[in-house]
Amino acid sequence: MNEFQRCIRVFSHSPFKVRLMLLNMLCEMINGKPRQDDKPSH
What we know:
Number of strands: 0
Helix content: 55-70%
Radius of gyration: 13 Å
Distance between the termini: 35 Å
Oligomer: single chain
Low-confidence stretches: none
Number of helices: 2
Mean pLDDT: 80
Structural class: mainly alpha
């Protein structure tokens, strides 16, 4: 639980771009689908 709280603390202090990147990574981990054949939307 300590690790989680530290992650949350780092997350809350990180800039918006970093948060977005982390959220994307988290979503990909949860969905469990590789995005290699996916074309980036940006």
